[in-house]
Write a structure and sequence with these properties.
Blueprint lengths: L11 E3 L15 E4 L4 E5 L12 E4 L6 H4 L3 E2 L18 E2 L1 H5 L2 E3 L14 H12 L13 E4 L2 E5 L3 E3 L4 E4 L5 E5 L4 E5 L28 E9 L5 E6 L5 E8 L16 E6 L11 E8 L3 E5 L7 E3 L2 E5 L1 E5 L20 E3 L2 E5 L4 E3 L6 E3 L2 E5 L14 E3 L5 E3 L2 E2 L1 H7 L13 E2 L2 E4 L4 E4 L3 E10 L4 E11 L4 E11 L6 E10 L8 E8 L9 E8 L8 E10 L1
Parallel strand pairs: 1-2, 7-8, 8-11, 9-12, 10-13, 11-14, 12-14, 13-15, 14-16, 15-17, 16-18, 17-19, 18-20, 18-21, 19-22, 20-23, 21-24, 22-25, 23-26, 24-27, 25-28, 26-29, 27-30, 28-31
Antiparallel strand pairs: 2-3, 3-4, 5-6, 32-40, 33-40, 34-39, 35-36, 35-40, 36-37, 38-39
Length: 550
Amino acid sequence: MAVVQISKIQIRRGQKNQGSGLPQLSSGELGWAIDTQELYVGNGAVSEGAPRVGNTKVLTEHDNLFTLIDTYAYRTNDPYVVTGDSATNPIKRTLQDRLDDIVSGRSFGLNGIEGADATVKLQNAIDQLYLNSSSLGTSQSRVVLHLEPGVYSLNGTVYLPPYTTIVGAGADKTIIKKTTSGDIFRTENQLTIGASKATRADDSGSSLLNQARNIRLEGLTLQTTQANSQGLVLQSCKDSTFKDIKIDGPWASGNTIPSDYSTDIGIELNSLSGSVETTGNLFERVEVHGFGYGVMSNWDINNNRWSHCKFDGLGYGFVFGIDMVIGAPSTGQSTGPVNNTISNTDFSNINYHGIWIHNGKYNTSNNNTFVLVANDGSSDANPNTSIIKFVQIGNSTTDDYFARTKEMSYTPANMTGKVYWPEVENSGIWSWKESHTITVSRGTNVKAIRLPQYIHQSFEVDYMLVSPNYSSTRNGKLSITINSIDGDIEFNDEYHFTGIETYLEAIKFDVNKTDEDGDATSDTINITYTSTMPVDDQTKMTFTVTNKQT
């Protein structure tokens, strides 16, 4: 039987926004707002058991859930967590704001697929979030841009304005890979010109109000495949944090190191303005590998800190103030790097100086480890220069460990015919981090310890001699000073002895200089001993060294 007619069911209808608005519907009655395309049902009377009178809105395809969820409150019903000033007054935020605290790069088409150029998309994401005129300088411009695991290929430089915050899934998981020469990341002030951001603002027009600042990079690998390129360039940048980052380049031992000190740099710090400096930045658990220069600055930078970092496979580690004209304050070259700190950091496989400070004062190396550094790719038994080089007075190293010390100071095979290149060269006060121990055997004028020779320097060797076989202990200090006028050695041995009096003077120390490379100039200090202890004596000498250079 064919259907010839469909029954019509019609509910109350009308316009919601005209007159007095939607009328009170009867209990269970449906009402359709034609103008807003909204559906309502009457609540019924309180006497019927309804919690309240009025109408209840029914969700339809025309509703926006975000407008219905007016606020987000963190753990509103948790009696132990109070987010507001009282338990009855929690902090409420829009759900959209809550979701936007962390913005996925996928929202900007950044999918981490290697090969496709992501330069434009990544720059657009940064510009929209941190250079948007509607949110510039507000809390909205301080959200987190999260990059999912993957490889983000770049053909150009990406610029980082103030408050840029990029967090990856971890180093070696989120990889920013640049396949062309130039910088990977470069900071900029917030004066980038034009709606298209086609003209990027460097720091030459920076002020304390618009300079690059409060930038955060975390959980990323910055990788360049091109020689003579830079990983991260900070221009008049302050109060920023770089954490859990790897910066990788293609440089390897044997490659040429640029002589202009302006390229092939892992981290470069600039202050082109005399009044706006790069200051107060923290580098924590940052690894730099495969560059001619790990960290470079020829500008007035100050109070930057490197902590628990790793520098490996480099030409030089840190180079400060090597190519600058001191006395040009208007261009940011008045003092050079000042008050910067490197601590708890590992240096390894670095061809030349691990730290080289040519200009700049009050920079500190503390509790760092240097292994296979300043050997031009060879072993610690074959050094070619100093590990740390201070040219200007006022820099310091404390409690640093140098693997070279054992090889050059008291390993018998290396104590003759090899110049003892110093751990630390030129001005400063430094000490070996840990004590060292050797065996003192019976003999005459036996080389015990070697030290590097420079004028205007002195050494203090704190030692303890212990003879377990003959119950003797001697605590003393060897003082060695190189006369600045004639180069003669002034030597003194002060000690306290306990034990069998027969052995009070059984071990005597002396000092001499030798020419180990045959150029007719003495280059190495030798501490020797003569021991008349019994043949079976097993005296051990434990010692530390402090060096003072003026």
